[in-house]
User: What shape does this take?
Amino acid sequence: MAIPDLSTVFRAEVVAARLEGALRADADLAASWRAAAGVQEACASVWLEDLPVSPDALLCRGFRGEMGDPDQDRALIAGAAMLRGLHSPGDLLRDPRAVLDRIWTLACGSDMGRAPFGQSNQELIQEALREADSPILGAVAVAQVVSAATEGRAPSAERLAFVAADHALRGSGRFMAGEAEPHELVAAPRGLWVVQPSVGLTEHGFRLWSVNRPERVGELLTGLTRALERALGALALHRRWLDAVRGKAATAHGKSRLPDLARLLMTRPIVTSGDVAARLSMSPRGALYLVERAEDEGLISKITPRSTYRAWATVPLASMIGRG
Assistant: This one.
């Protein structure tokens, strides 16, 4: 096992603990932050596979009227798979087989055959999680097991396993059932993770992913620390938005549906007027008026061009994809 420098681990865990504490204290803040953080991590992971994709392109994929460039579509499909794994990582400690099989499918599709994880790999992962001295060290150990089992052929699976391990050591949750477009995969995230390994390796230049060489693990931890510090700073934007939404909802007049829309936005940061009409039992015209009012109040921003199917996102998410 590649043993990282413990002082580097300590710095990363201190910042991670601060971020985890802030998110645990406010479920709405956690949902808002993880919606954006999941998209960032999914895009960064795909970039590490030499498949460039932007958050804007990924989230608006479901609103396109036609197929685009084949290479871009391949990148978008890969990004959506990563986002799915981040949305609901599953319980790696109690059900490692299901989680590992799902990670393999999301990372590799059907191109690389059946998942190579046997009973011994599952037991090694459970042991690594139980004996981990910290969530990040546990995540490194789990990624190393996955790397050995796959012979290093699926680094994106290693990164998903890294996040799933962090999630398992900070909490747990079920999978998301059925199919979903990327913009649905930012709704009510079930993950309790705080780490973004791919973001840590792609900010301030690209660095290679490897959990088997101490110097690479050190680079990963240094990048993780920077990403965690940036995430802590980003919480201010999410808090300001939440305060604004809660304030508008609290001061709305008795018949206003703005409080209902505010509650919807807490769990569904991307909406269309059709979504609002269906979920709030409103007429299409009334829903569009409500959405446009929320836009005028600065609570949401349009993220699709006027000539296409229209969708709006919460301000923090819209800002992340350059539409705020």
About this structure: Residues 31 and 189 are 6 Å apart (CA to CA). Residues 252-318 form a domain with the Arc Repressor Mutant, subunit A fold (CATH 1.10.10.10). The chain has two domains: 6-235, 252-318. The radius of gyration is 20 Å.
